[in-house]
Design a protein that fits this description.
Number of helices: 5
Structural class: mainly alpha
Number of strands: 3
Distance between the termini: 72 Å
Strand content: 5-15%
Radius of gyration: 22 Å
Strand order of the largest sheet: 1-3-2
CATH architecture: Alpha-Beta Complex
CATH topology: Aspartate Aminotransferase, domain 1
Number of domains: 1
Amino acid sequence: MEAMKKIHQYVIMCAPTMSQWAAVEALESGMPEVERMVAEYDQRRQTIVQGFRDMGLSCFEPKGAFYCFPRVSDLGMTSDEFCNRLLEAEKVAVVPGSAFGDSGEGFIRVSYAYSIDSIKKALVKIDRFIQAL
């Protein structure tokens, strides 16, 4: 039992040595990768926000997440209806704002945690859907 306690202590009480060394490496030399990803997400954010604004949709520029929340209430349908019709017509999935409570109604939540090419393709499809309304 004493031997098992020792093994148990070192197996569950601390992070494995390999993970600790990986964390040290990330802290010492990982900043360029962090800066690269921050720049990449900033480009994605700017692209999607401007894309929605170009379509005539009001869209607050997010500051700390990879989701934006454009207003679709001016298009004459609920957020659920907008999402369902967009999915059927253009095969683009977005989340109705109503999923986030009453104050989310009239908005959609759109993730920009995708490649810039995927974002641009989705924006084209969403714009085509809106133009067809």
